[in-house]
Amino acid sequence: MAGSSAVHGSAERIGYITRVQSFSACHRLHSIHLTDKDNKEVYGKCNNPNGHGHNYKVEVTVRGKIDPVTGMVMNLTDLKKCIEEVIMIPLDHKNLDKDVPYFASVVSTTENVAVYIWDNMAKVLPPNLLYEIKIYETDKNIVVYRGE
Ligand SMILES: Nc1nc2c(c(=O)[nH]1)N=C([C@H](O)[C@H](O)COP(=O)(O)OP(=O)(O)OP(=O)(O)O)CN2
Ligand SMILES: [Zn+2]
């Protein structure tokens, strides 16, 4: 049918594609803006100076036009390279608070890890493609950040 071929050939289709990446890191929840006493009260066991570790799982989602020629929003192989640069090299097997300069003054909550990943992914991806960063800190603790 002529109508349906026109839709498939020219209408703009928007797709969402996601790549999942796991990384391991340790951290301690501690705010430089709080006293030691208040840190203990706010963060409880997570303020323990010895820190603790997580096997984080991150889902990076991009949203964009499905290119009618390539059939892709973006090449997932390119997204994989961005994730290596932004997540794996700086964060995997690291102490977030000591090894990542950003977290020297920013508490390493999963919310802030999501913001860190968003800001750095936005720098390496084509403009306006990044849609969502979702982090599973544990199976039960999940954070979503969409750049708002
Ligand atoms: N809003 C946030 N709250 C908490 C964060 C965070 O990133 N954002 N992080 C933590 C700790 O890092 C901690 O690792 C998680 O604590 P908790 O939920 O107590 O740990 P579990 O999920 O392992 O606990 P279960 O015993 O399995 O319920 C705390 N809060
Ligand atoms: Zn933690």
TrEMBL record:
Q: Which organism is it from?
A: Stegastes partitus
Please state what class of enzyme this protein is: lyase
The catalytic activity of this protein is classed by the Enzyme Commission as 4.2.3.12
Q: What is this protein called?
A: 6-pyruvoyl tetrahydrobiopterin synthase
One cellular component term (GO) for this entry is: mitochondrion
**Entry's Gene3D superfamilies?**
6-pyruvoyl tetrahydropterin synthase/QueD
Cofactor(s), by name: Zn(2+)
Recorded name of the encoding gene: LOC103376306
List the coiled-coil residues: none
UniProt cofactor note: Binds 1 zinc ion per subunit.
Q: Which CDD domains is this protein grouped with?
A: PTPS
